Amino acid sequence: MENTRRKFLNSISMLAATTLFPLNSFAFNSNKKLRICLIGTGVRGTSFWGKRLVDEYNEILEFVGLCDINPGRLVYGKKYIGANCDTYDDCDQMLQDTKPDLLIVTTVDATHHEYIIKGLKFGCDVLTEKPLTTDETKAQAILDAEQESEKKLIVGFNYRWSPYSTKIKELLMNNTIGKITSVDFHWYLNTYHGASYFRRWHGYKDKGGTLLVHKSTHHFDLLNWWLDSDPSEVFAYGSLEHYGKNGPFRGENCRNCEHKNNCAFHYNITKSKRDVDLYVSNENYDGYMRDSCLFREDIDIYDKMSTQIKYANNVTVNYSLTTYSPFEGWRIAFNGTEGRIEASLDIPYHNEIKVEQAEMHSKEMEQKAMDDLKIENIIVHKNWNDFETIAVPTERNGHGGGDKRLHDKIFISPNIDDPFERSAGIRDGVMSVLIGIGARNSIESGKPVKIADLTELKPMANRIKSS
Ligand SMILES: NC(=O)c1ccc[n+]([C@@H]2O[C@H](COP(=O)([O-])OP(=O)(O)OC[C@H]3O[C@@H](n4cnc5c(N)ncnc54)[C@H](O)[C@@H]3O)[C@@H](O)[C@H]2O)c1
User: Counting atoms of ligand 1 from 1, which one is nearest the CA of 128?
Assistant: First the structure.
């Protein structure tokens, strides 16, 4: 146990090195488990940052407090996680009573800053889910709080850790196609997963900051990491043309909708016991309905987004996000001075997809220990040569295998050097949300936005390394 615990402490310090300062709150006495508090006992908090930690790392950590504004979800969450600790409706009280080493933040995106800052001011380290936050003022407040605190902030970016994303990084690090000059990157959310964002809080700018922040933070972080440079300017178009007020009819939620028989988006939440226990059974406390109508008239995010990003090293990126595609997948192409790399996942015209479209997202969120390996290709096409196909063994569970690798890096093999520099810290968290925030500001103003005008962070041609 002592060995595992020491490795864990080192791993936290390594993650903290992403901020260029060592974490020190983990230098507690030996034979003491890491004391964790978690705020936000929703699906992500109870599964990935809850039950999976208890199941896999019980020997070295313990939950000492759980907090949520919904008392019913809190009771259910504690049971689902398998934690033996007190529950709270007030974060300050929880911190005072339990004095944790680490606060994990898995609440609604627009509230992350509040708890990150509380944790840092209280004097514990903080690990937050993506996106770091939803606007530039909150981003600056987090940067200030982190500077004033001796404690550190970790951002849980899991996509970097999937074997497929890592292989792309390796090819780029090896200068396989010379200097990268431009990138085409397109992400397609299907009519199940894409639609799901419009059923709940993600449908409001003031909760998730639009999908350019909530969802694209993953994609922008991948770009920043792959290109190894900071974004310097962004210009975007976006509109809401399909969901929200554009729907032909609407109801309160799918369960009691009079249009359920003729709505292609009808979603029967009662088929999932987990969703009923987590959400439906606790609606009476806060009115949060997981199956709200996606044609609600007050939805104010975009369902079609197109963004141009200029990097400090002069690479230009064309990025788009679609939310009502017949399939869930993505494609990217890097143009370099010596050729081109093309990569894509789950394009049904390239490979037979064995998973139903309706199941694609739940498979991605699943945290099963074992998953079927499948082979996905990356094309490397050097100028004046025939193309080469690189076969990459990949998984589908837990965000392409990224989830468990992120945990394992923190908890199991922290001392192994990571040649791909996958650990992410505060600068990575801020830079990825600033592209989405800048894109949103650009859509609203019709003008390009300079990243340097949003916070005190100045874009660097060579990204400051995370570890
Ligand atoms: N990295 C990933 O791949 C990934 C995947 C899913 C979700 N997430 C992130 O995890 C976070 C939670 O998402 P989710 O899907 O679990 O949402 P959810 O709606 O299931 O859960 C959110 C929880 O936060 C609680 N909450 C809301 N406002 C609060 C407040 N002010 N104080 C305390 N509790 C509050 C809600 O009651 C709810 O229990 C989000 O930030 C999301 O972006 C990340």
Answer: 41
Q: What is the tens place of the pLDDT at every residue in 1-54? A: 444 444 444 444 334 333 322 233 343 334 688 899 999 999 999 999 999 999
Output the CA 48–ligand 1 centroid distance in Å: 12
Ligand 1 midpoint to CA 45 (Å): 7
Asked if 160 contacts 154 with a C-beta cutoff of 8 angstroms, the reply is: no
- Average of per-residue pLDDT across 391-402: 82
Residue 110 alpha carbon to ligand 1 centre in Å: 10
Distance 39 CA to ligand 1 centre (A): 9
Average pLDDT, the chain: 90
Gap from CA of 461 to ligand 1 centroid (Å): 34
CA–CA gap between residue 118 and residue 91 (Å, rounded): 8
In what order do the strands lie in the sheet containing 304-311?
A: 387-394, 374-382, 339-345, 329-336, 180-190, 316-325, 304-311, 231-239, 449-450
* CA atoms of 328 and 378, how far apart (whole Å): 18
Element (H, E) at 181: strand 180-190
Q: What is the pLDDT of residue 8?
A: 45
Given a cut of 50, whether residue 118 has pLDDT beyond it is yes
Contacts of 163 (CB under 8 A, 6+ apart): 392, 393, 394, 395, 400, 401
Q: What are the start-end ranges of the E strands in 249-386?
A: 304-311, 316-325, 329-336, 339-345, 374-382
Ligand 1 atom with minimal separation from the 201 CA: 19
Report the C-alpha gap between 441 and 37 in whole angstroms.
Answer: 34
CB 231 within 8 A of CB 459: yes
Is residue 184's pLDDT more than 70?
Answer: yes
Query: In the beta sheet, which residues pair with residue 178?
Result: none
Question: Looking at residues 204-228, what average pLDDT do you find?
Answer: 98
- The sign of the dihedral angle between the CA atoms of 177, 181, 182, 183 is positive
Residue 102 is encoded by which pair of tokens? 């680490």
Site to probe by mutation for ligand 1, drawn from 38, 44, 220 as the one with most ligand atoms within 8 Å of Cβ, is: 44
In angstroms, the CA 315 to CA 332 distance is 14
Q: Which residues line ligand 1 (CB under 6 A)?
A: 39-45, 68-70, 73, 106-109, 111, 129-130, 156, 158, 214, 399
* pLDDT tens digits for range 248-284: 999 999 999 999 999 999 999 999 999 999 999 999 9
Q: Are strands 329-336 and 180-190 parallel, antiparallel or unpaired?
A: antiparallel
Decide if pLDDT at 359 tops 60: yes
Point out the ligand 1 atom lying closest to the alpha carbon of residue 286: 37
Give bridge partners of residue 135 from the DSSP assignment.
none
The rounded Å distance from CA 120 to ligand 1 centre is: 20
